[in-house]
Amino acid sequence: MGIGAVQAAEPGPDASQRSALIRFDIPAQPLDSAVLAFAEQAKVQVFFDSRKLAGLRSEGLHGEHTSREGLALLLGANPVRYRFGGNDQVGLERLSDDGKALELGATRIRSVSDGDWVYTAPRSVAVITREQIDKRPPRHAADMLEETAGVYTAVNQRDPGLSVNIRGVQDYGRVNMNIDGMRQNFNVNGHQQRNGIMVVDPEFISSVEIEKGSQSGMGGAGVLGGIASFNTVQASEFLGPDKEYGGRIRAGHGIGELGNGTYFNGSALFAFGNEAGDLLLGVSERHFGDYRAGTNDKDNLGTQIRAREVWPQAWENWLESEVGDMGSVTRSRLFKLGVNLPQDQRLQFNYIETDTDSKDAWTWPTDDLSAFYYQRSGATDLNAKNASIDYSFTPDNDLIDVQAKVYFVRTRMDRWNAASTASPGSGNWFGAYNDRFQTDTWGLQLQNTSRFYIGAADKLTINYGTELFEDRFKPATDRVAATNEQALPYVEGATPEGKKLTASLFANAQYEHGDWLTLDAGLRYDLYRLSGASGMTLWMYPEGTWEGAASTKTRQTLLFDDTTEQGHFSPTFGIAVKPGVDWLQLYTRWGRGWRSPAVTEVFMTGRPHAGNASEMVYPNPYLKPETSHDWELGFNIFRESLLRDGDRFGLKVAYFDTRIDNFSFLDVNVNLPDETSSGTGLGRMAYQNNEETTRFRGVEYSLDYDAGAWYGRLAYTHMIGSNDFCSRQFYMGGAKQVVRVGTVTRPVQVGNRIVMRQFPVSEAQANDAMSNQITCGNIMGNATYMPADRGSLTLGMRFFDNTLDVGGRLRYSKGNGANLDTPGYATLDQALWPKYKVYDLFASYWMTPQVNLSLALENATDQAYFVAMGDVNNLSLARGRTLTGMLEYRF
């Protein structure tokens, strides 16, 4: 097919022959951005070298055409040849004056994965691209998310586990954290409510997509905060028409003394494929060690962190010394095998395994109080195995677009815990012991999308399907209790098992009228079944009456062997309009969410973490599901050629308001049945439902401008308000009072005579007033305080035909330090998130089309800071000034 000077190579015998008409609306613009718009609207992948298309323009494309006709018209008279390959892929080559193809730089591939589409989506969504990730090489997986509006992470610098917080909401499935759609539901009680963690290797990430708020599509079951999808690399990223093998090799290291504990980091990916199928193999290894934190602007840290006001000399030593026992090693493997079946079907097997070793340590003052030293309290091996089989069926039929997945995820944490520091003869000593926490998740997903074209201006899209997954919780411990311990798990030497099955049906309809009105409505039904066995060891009064005013309690065990089942409907609704101009879109959304309790929240019994403290978590079989009501109001602006020919400008602003009833939190001061006084249970913990409505609201700003030679990005999140956390002091009831109910007369020998004497008779009676007592503020977790405001600004320039990219970034937080100078110990958590301004510099140079050298200087001004929402209880400051380099080779 040829239009003017356009030459189309003959397609292979298995190339896609799609003939369905597609409605295009692509304005005149530079050819490279026009091709990206074509790829998005035609739902195909386009491979090309953006440098080779520089200087070419397209007159645009409008109306209904097949994908082949549309591409030919879009290219017009430009000297470009195209070829359609299998699996909806298109390759472009620029022709020289003699009609031959110019050399194609495989490293400069552009496709529909760019993030411009978020500025036209009528909802709150964000995308982190691979390009953004590479500008700041992640040491912790949380680094990938730090520049995204509305997204936080409770970071423990020692723990590579990632816990995603969206708009203040996280943990126990409130946010669906997934890798290629496979839910990462591992959870174990941890500091700062980092109770639902995943392990993901940034080397294998292609992009991260964040959907905010309740969802009525795939992945929305049990979701209150949103969906965080970590998409790993695919073979198609390295292959293309007439390119049957390819890959990427990366090797990086810290540079000199500025390496600051950053050692070898690298990966290798190899892809092979053709029209019949493809194979992708990958390995990755990452090494980190002790590092120095920043020391400038140390007064931002306040007077209370690490006892600065009490031990100033030791505090200065702590700040200026290396953060000790930070060594960690992460190794990952990836295997993907895809087969292209007849009639537009595809089957793919995926396997990803990540294993990471890390340490737990705490700081202790020296005897002369002149310094702090680090003492190891535990060591952790965290292993995650992910396997799935994906199936797709996408024929030339607008009613059929089937996607299916079956998967299995096993995440296991093996944790060594140090022995008690008490003297062996004190009765409080216990030996070193090992814990194991394992969560097995299997899941099934099935969905179809049907599209209906009504007349010339209307389109109806219906997405519907089902999601099913089950979590099995398998913990164990070999801990032997100290002699004096009275609060014990009901099974000494082990903790209980449990499982939760979640089934969901959903349907979502979107109606588009012309290019100015979009309506969508969805409904999902979630059903869960939670089962397990647990219990608690209590000291209880005897039944009935006894002689005397007091009675000796005896140790009793309460057992719970329970199965709970419940279902719930959750609707969503949205509307978006373009008020007379193509570049502005106004939208609003409303939805409801519902989350059932997790196995850990209901059945956990035992010590919550490593170390020498005597805290104990008790089960709560009466925990209720959470329900949410969320709404948002926002607008999008997306303009091309705004300030200069070919530039792109995107702006997204949204106000959000999420209210959660029965919010579950870890209460750190509960009383147990048969106790006669309240408020005396500090360190006795249980998950409780908040008696108050928990509310998270704020405003998000995202801006992206790219003029080719220079660009900028801005993201900022402003949180509003605060929450109260109130619950029943006797969370299971059963408060008692000892009451004298009578007397009994018995003979008593006094000297050499027998006399009759009256003795009191007492009974433990229910104390309803105390059982119903509500107390507030006894919360452990990052929900204690609203997340601190946070933002980032990135500015960069490109030189030498876009081969050299240099720039800088400002990361800012105004902090949330209510207790930085004045301690408030009503709760164990302190609002210790100091303000900070951190500057980073980066440079990337493609020396050849295949070889890239990148440098990154993080925290150039050596700022002393914590990441906003970070785990201050661990007291691991972020890295100081750190310089790293990365060499990448693509083929």
UniProtKB/TrEMBL annotation:
Which UniProt keywords are given for this protein, alphabetically ordered?
A: Cell outer membrane, Ion transport, Iron, Iron transport, Membrane, Receptor, Signal, TonB box, Transmembrane, Transmembrane beta strand, Transport
Q: What topology in the membrane does the UniProt record assign?
A: Multi-pass membrane protein
Organism domain of life? Bacteria
Name the residues that span the membrane: none
Kindly indicate whether the keyword Transport belongs to this entry: yes
Looking up Gene3D superfamilies in the UniProt record yields: 3.55.50.30, TonB-dependent receptor, beta-barrel domain, TonB-dependent receptor, plug domain
Does the record bear Protein transport in its keywords?
Answer: no
Q: Which InterPro entries match?
A: Beta-barrel_TonB, Beta-barrel_TonB_sf, Plug_dom, Plug_dom_sf, Secretin/TonB_short_N, TonB-dep_rcpt-like, TonB_haem/Hb_rcpt, TonB_Hb/transfer/lactofer_rcpt
Record localization: Cell outer membrane
- Show where the Secretin/TonB short N-terminal domain sits: 44-95
Q: Which GO terms describe its molecular function?
A: heme transmembrane transporter activity; siderophore uptake transmembrane transporter activity
Q: Name one GO biological process term.
A: siderophore transmembrane transport
Q: Which GO terms describe its cellular component?
A: cell outer membrane
Q: Which family does it belong to?
A: Belongs to the TonB-dependent receptor family.
Q: What is this protein called?
A: TonB-dependent hemoglobin/transferrin/lactoferrin family receptor
Annotated organism of origin: Pseudomonas bharatica CSV86
